[in-house]
Design a protein that fits this description.
Layout lengths: L2 E2 L1 E4 L15 H14 L3 E5 L5 H13 L4 E7 L2 H11 L5 E8 L2 H8 L3 H15 L6 E6 L6 H14 L3 E6 L6 H14 L7 E6 L6 H10 L4 E4 L13 H10 L1 H4 L1 E2 L7 H12 L20 H9 L19 E3 L5 H10 L6 H17 L3 E2 H12 L6 E9 L7 E8 L2 E8 L3 H13 L4 E9 L8 E9 L2 E9 L2 H27 L2
Parallel strand pairs: 1-10, 2-3, 2-9, 3-4, 4-5, 5-6, 6-7, 7-8, 8-9
Antiparallel strand pairs: 11-12, 13-14, 14-15, 16-17, 17-18
The protein binds 3-methyl-2-oxobutanoic acid and zinc ion.
């Protein structure tokens, strides 16, 4: 039997720390539900002591997502640990993940602590965390630049104090695979009680080696890999979950190890994250890039037709990339719609189902065929819904060669109709100018991305926008077969998120 390597997903914590990837509570919950469908072993849901919003995000997931272990990150400080313990308490299986830096450069310049003080703090943190749960992970931050003798001492001490997982992060993405593998082997061979804990790795991608380093660590005995969907994360990101998982699956012959991940959920997880954050993956990105399974050259196509294995080391189906699956048509009823969603792994509340069904009916009227990807987009939209301050009532955009594009827009602002019109450089620009004036926003549009959800000229367009408001970035998405309407929806979605955030901030400050 191959070893099962645990997959610790940190998309919602380390991933969310990267610029442009911040998510609100509803989005985190939607992503966590998808991670549960993906069957990761652990979801690191956030850093509860960082802010009340972070706390609430972790707590929502601990209450509402079942299957994986739910972890909360905290510094090796009593009040942080208490906060993490409180946030994850409702989870059926909860983990406290506490960390402190162990490299000379971090201890001296960041912590201003002596190694012995760091060792004491690590032991105390683990002992304190063990009062709340028997699943405690300790991370030696910047472990790759830590003196190996000290790293062995810290590892032994935290295991003796009760840590069940010890994580060896390459915090700054400095390691080279062979060197990192050797470091893990040294720990496996030199720490006397290492068999009482799982050795984990957490690699950053500054030199583009995060996945290679993680795999070298697995070969050397690591039992857990920390990674993120699409490889998002601080700076150049973290090890990409899909690459680690598919490398282990595809080269089981070499590693004699695999994971419990449901690989057919990989594509959907990647797309959901892109739709939430607006961070589009490069077309040639391994496993989830749009070209990852596209064979262009004649010789390759010929080979594939003769025998798939000539040029395909894994199938698109194995990562959930299916031919556009026709699922429903305009005559499909609510029952068929609900069953299809259940088959796709979605469970919606009655209200969400009603709204999603109405959206589906409108779409089926506009489009001849509705595909699984269309349903994913509808569900993502409905389940991450926040209160709509602004919504689109009507839109008329006129564009003619030689004439200035013009848009007439009516939006509802807290239920009240407001109409306006504007000229622009194109129909989308005119629409956005009209909406900006009607909503009174002072935000700035910083990104605008259009993609087609499924093939054909009647495909739904999915538009992602980012706006910057009061120093924060908000991502909005809209899907519609009409690109201008999709654009308007995406913009309004981002404005709603910004407004929601302003309202919550005002509420937190009190009157
Ligand atoms: O990169 C890192 O060292 C981390 C730790 C907190 C695990 O993210
Ligand atoms: Zn990290």
């Amino acid at each position: 039997m191959p070893r099962i390597i645990r997959i610790f997903d940190t998309t919602l914590r380390d991933g969310e720390q990267c610029p442009g990837a911040s998510m609100n509570r509803e989005e985190k919950l939607a992503m966590a539900r998808q991670l549960a469908r993906l069957k990761v072993d652990v979801i690191e849901a956030g850093f509860p002591a960082a802010s009340p919003d972070d706390f609430a995000g972790v707590n929502d997931i601990a209450r509402q997502v079942s299957g994986p272990i739910i972890a909360g990150l905290c510094r090796a400080i009593t009040k942080d640990i208490d906060r993490a313990a409180e946030a994850i308490a409702p989870a059926a299986r909860a983990r406290i993940h506490t960390f402190i830096a162990t490299s000379p450069i971090h201890m001296q310049h960041k912590l201003r602590m002596e190694p012995e003080q760091v060792l004491e703090a690590a032991i105390a943190a683990v002992k304190h965390a063990c009062k709340f749960t028997d699943d405690v992970e300790f991370s030696a931050e910047d472990a790759v630049r830590t003196d190996i003798d000290f790293l062995c001492r810290v590892t032994e001490a935290v295991i003796a104090a009760g840590a069940t997982t010890v994580n060896i992060p390459d915090t700054v993405g400095y390691a080279i695979p062979e060197e990192f593998g050797t470091r893990i082997s040294q720990l496996m061979n030199r720490v006397p009680n290492v068999d009482r804990a799982v050795i984990s790795v957490h690699c950053h991608n500054d030199l583009g080696l995060a996945v290679a380093n993680s795999l070298a660590a697995v070969a050397a005995g690591a039992g857990q890999v920390e990674c993120t969907v699409n490889g998002i994360g601080e700076r150049a990101g973290n090890a990409s979950l899909e690459e680690v998982v598919m490398a282990l699956n595809t080269r089981r012959d070499l590693f004699d190890a695999t994971t419990a991940v449901e690989t057919s959920e990989i594509t959907r997880s990647s797309r959901l994250l892109t739709s939430i954050t607006g961070m589009v993956v490069q077309p040639n990105k391994a496993i989830v890039g749009s070209n990852a399974f596209a064979h262009e050259s004649g010789i390759h196509q010929d080979g594939l037709l003769k025998h798939k294995a000539t040029y395909e080391i894994m199938t698109p189906e194995s990562v959930g990339l299916t031919e556009h699956n026709l699922v429903l048509g305009k005559h499909s009823g609510r029952h068929a719609f609900k069953s299809k969603l259940e088959e796709l792994g979605y469970t919606l509340s009655d209200g969400e189902l009603t709204r999603a069904f109405e959206r589906f009916k409108r779409l089926a009227d506009q489009k001849k065929e509705v595909f699984e990807e269309d349903l994913d987009a509808i569900v993502a939209d409905e389940t991450q819904r926040i209160p709509d301050t602004f919504s689109l009532e009507t839109l008329e955009a006129v564009t003619r060669t030689g004439k200035t594009p013009h848009a007439k827009v009516t939006i509802l602002v807290k239920g009240q109709k407001h109409s306006g019109e504007a000229d622009g450089d194109g129909p989308v620009d005119a629409t956005y100018r009209a909406i900006a004036a009607l909503s009174g926003t002072r935000s700035e549009l910083t990104a605008y991305i259009v993609q087609a959800i499924s093939g054909g000229t009647d495909a739904q367009g999915i538009v992602t926008v980012k706006i910057s408001d009061d120093g924060r970035t908000f991502t909005g998405q809209g899907a519609d077969p009409d690109i201008v309407v999709a654009s308007a929806r995406a913009y309004l979605h981002a404005l709603n998120k910004a407004d929601y955030w302003h309202q919550k901030r005002a509420g937190m400050k009190g009157p």
